[in-house]
Amino acid sequence: MTNLWKNLLIGGFLAAFLILLGFFNATKPRILVLHSAGPDSSWARQVDRGMDEALARNRRPLSVERNYLGLDSPAAPRRVEEARSEAQRAVARFQPDVLIAVDDEANSLVAQEYVGRESPRILYVSLNRPPSDLGYVGAANVSGIAEQLPLAAVRDAVMDLFPGRAPTVAVIGVDNETGSAEMAQVRAFDWSPLSVDEAVLVAKAEDWRAFVQGVAAADVLLVLGTHDLPGEGGVRVTAAEINRWTQEQARPLPIGTQVNFVEDGGGLSFSPPPEESGAKAIGLALDWLDARDTPGAPAPVVSDHFEVAVRPAVLAARGVVLPPIYLEAARENGTLFK
Amino acid sequence: MGSRFFEVISAHWPVFALLAGLGLVMGLIAFVRGRRAAETGVPGGVIFGWGCVFALPPLVYVLGLASGLSVESAIFTALLAAAVLLWVFGLVEEFVPALVAVVAALFVGLAPAEVALAGFASPALLLLLGVYALSAVISSSGLSYRLMLRLLLRLPDKPVWHQVTLLGTGYLLSPLMPSANARMSMLMPVFKDMATGLKLPARGPALTALLAAMFGGALLFSPMMATSKSSNIAALNFLPPQVQAEFAGLFWLVAAGVAALGMTVAHLLVIPRLFPSGPEAPLPRAHLERQLSEMGPLKASEWIAAAGFVFFLIGCATVTWHHVKPSYLAGFVLLGLLLTGTLLRKDFQKQLDWPMIFFLLGMDSMMRIMDHLGLAQALARATGEVYGFVDGRIAFFIAASLLTTLAVRLVLPVTAGMLTSAIILLPVAAAQGINPWICVFCAAVFSDISFFRHQGTNGIMQIRASGLFELGDERGFLRYNMWMNLARVVFVFASIPWWQWLGLL
C-alpha cells in the first residue's frame, strides 16, 4: 500500500507538473517579431536592442520569437519565396497573438496576408510606405508605427552648411522595397530651396560606385538605407564597406539616413531611431495584449523622431563645420563617434 | 607572405627557441632511454602524430599572423589545428580535442566564459541528457529486446520479415537512441539468436542479408531525425534560432521524408538482389517464447520507458499546441525518469554517454568562440571564394557538400567529420541563399558514407570487432554498403523537388 501510494503521488505530481505548466505555456501571450533584414544587419540589431530593453522591463510572462527574412543579403533575390514560406511556417507553428513586422518587406510579403483575420494582430514598425498601400487602414487587427525619414532635418542642416546658396542634392539607395518606399518619400518631400537633381536606386556595388563618382557636381549626397550588395565576380560587398567607401570617395558631402552610416565611417547622419522604434513596438504590443486599461488596438502612430550621428574628424577633413547643437545632440544620444 | 612569415618568427624568437630547446631535450631523452631500454609497443604513427601536435600548431600560429589574422584569431587557429591533429591521428578519445580547445581558449582569455562555455548552457544540454537517459532506460529495462521478440513472433516466419524486424526495430529506436553503435548493440543479440536458431549457413547470402538488415536498421535512419544521431543534435545548435525552432521537432523527419523513404526502399530492393534467399529452417519460436516468458510481464521501468518514449514523440508532434521546445520536453522526460527512480544516481553516472555529451557541447562552444573572434566570418569569406561556382544552385551545392564531407571523412571520424563539414558548409549555404538545414542534412547523410576500413563508420567497425564478418560474407556486405552509399547520394538529390514543395528552396 505504501509503495502504491508513493508511486501514485509521484505520478500525480508529474502529471500535475506537466498539465499545469503545459497549460500555462500554451496560453501565455506570444509575440513573433518578423524582420525584413538578417540578424547581422545593423538596423535589425538596433531594433532588437530596443525591443530587448522594453522586454527586460516587462514582468508579464511572454513567449517572444524572432524570424529574419534576411532580404538584405546579395543572395536575397533568389530566396524571397523561401524566406516568405519560412516566415509563414513560423507563423503557423508559433501562432503568435501579435506579429510585429519590421520594415516594408516583412509587411508586404508576410504580414499583409493576415489583414482582417482575428489572429494574429499585426503591428507594423518602420514602415516607410503609406499603411493604406497594404490595406492596413481601417483593419481591426492592424496598428503600428509608420516611419518618416527626417528629411526636414536634413534640409535644415544642409542650409546651415551651405549658407546663402541653393545647394543641389543627389540621392542614392538600394533597389528593394524599403529603398523604393524611402525614395518615394524623398521625391514627395518639398526640398525648396534645395534641389534634388539626381536620385537612383541600385542593385550592384559597381552601379553604386559609378553613381557616386558621377555626381561630383552635387553639393550633398543623401545616402538612404544601405545593404550588402553583390560586387564584381559575385563577391559580397558589405554595407559597412559601401558606407566607408562612399564617405571616402564621394565629392559631395555624404549624409546618411541610418545611424550605421556614421558607425561605419561616415561623417553625418539623420536617422529614424531604430532602438526607440523597437521599444515602442513592444510597448504597443504589450498594451494591445493587456485589455484591462486600454481595450482594443492602440492607435497607429507616425514616428517623426530622429537621431543625429556625427563623426567630427571626418567632417573636419572635408572642412565642414557643423553647428554645435548637432554635436551636442549626438553626444547626448551616444552617437558621437571619434 | 614569405618575408612576413620570417618577420613573425623573428619577432617570436624566444618562444620558438624554447620550443626548439624542448624538442631537443625530448629527442635526447628518447634517444638515451631508447638505447638503454629498447622500448617497444608504441606504433610509429602515434609518435609521428604527437610530433605533429607538438610542432605544427606554432607554425599555424605564425602562418596565421603572416596572413593577416589578429593575434587572438591566430592563437585559436593554432588550437584548432592541434584539435584536428589529435582527431586525425586518433591520439586521444574523440571528446578530448574539443575540450582542449575550449579550456585553452579560456586559459588565455580568448573569449569570456559565457561565450566559451555557451554550448554547455544551451537547451541542447537538456536534449542530450534527456535523450541519452531515455535511451539508456529503454535498453537497460529490456523494453527494446522485448519489443523485438514480440515483433519476431507476431510477423510471418519468412526471411524477409526477419530482416524487416531488425530494420524496423532499429528505425523505431532511432528517435530516442542517438547512437548507431548503441542501436547496433541492441540488435546484435537478437541477430545472433536468429542466425543460430534459423541455422543459417556461415558466409551464406541469408546470413549476410540478416547482417545487412541489422546494419541498415542501426544506421540508415541516423540522419533522418534531429535526435537519431548525436551530431545532428549538435549541428542543430549551429543553425540560426529560427531554423532551430522549426527543425527541432518532427519537421526534420518531414523534410527528410523522401530520403528516408527512398533509402528504405533501396535497402529493401538491394538485399534480395544481392543476397537471394533460399529455404530456411523455421524460426526457433519455442526458444524466443521461452525468452519472452522468462522476462515476465512488463516491469514498471519498461512502462515508464515506454511512456517517456511516447510522451517525447507526441510532444514533438504537438509543439504548435503547447509551444514547449523539444529540448525542454526531453528535460521533462529526464525529470520523470529521475523522480520515479527509474534512473538512479549510479545509472545517471554510468549509463549516460558523458564523453559524447561533452564532445558535442564542446564542438558547439568551439563554434561560438570562432564566431566571437570573427574566424567564422573569415571562414565564410574564404569558403565563399572556393564555393563561388555553386551560385545558389542547389544541385551544385549538394555536389559540393558531398565532395567536402567525403574529403573531411577521409581524415576525421563520423561525428567530428559531420560537424566539421557542417562548419565549413554553413557559411556557404548562408551566402548562397540555401536553407542551412539542407546543409546540415547533407553533412549528416554523406558523413555515413564510407569506403575505407580506417574511416570508422558507425556499425562496420562494431561488426568487425564482434567477429560477425567471420559468420557472414564480408565482401557481399561491403557491396551492399556501396549500393547504399550510392542510394544516399541519389535520394538526397531526389529530395530537391520535395524541398521545393515544402518551401525550403
Could you walk me through the main structural features you see in this protein, from its secondary elements to its overall organization?
- The complex is a heterodimer of chains A (338) and B (505).
- By secondary structure, chain A is of the alpha/beta class.
- Chain A has 2 domains: 2-148 and 275-303, Rossmann fold, CATH 3.40.50; 151-271 and 306-333, Response regulator (Rossmann fold), CATH 3.40.50.2300.
- Chain A has helices at residues 2-27, 42-57, 80-94, 103-109, 151-161, 177-188, 205-214, 239-249, 259-263, 274-289, 312-317, 324-333; strands spanning 30-35, 63-68, 98-102, 121-127, 142-147, 168-174, 195-202, 220-223, 229-230, 236-237, 253-256, 268-271, 301-303, 307-310.
- A 6-stranded parallel sheet of chain A has the order 2-1-3-4-5-13, with helices on both faces.
- The longest helix of chain A is centred in the N-terminal third of the chain and has 26 residues, at 2-27.
- Chain B folds into 3 domains: 2-92, no CATH class; 112-141 and 299-371, no CATH class; 142-298 and 374-502, no CATH class.
- Helix content of chain B is 74%, strand content 0%.
- In chain B, α1 (2-11) crosses α3, α5 crosses α21 and α10 (180-197) runs antiparallel to α11 (205-219).
- Classes of the chains: A alpha/beta (338), B mainly alpha (505).
- At the A-B interface, α1, β2 and α3 of A face α13, α18, α19 and α24 of B.
Task: Summarize, please.
The complex is a heterodimer of chains A (338) and B (505). Chain A is 43% helix and 20% strand.
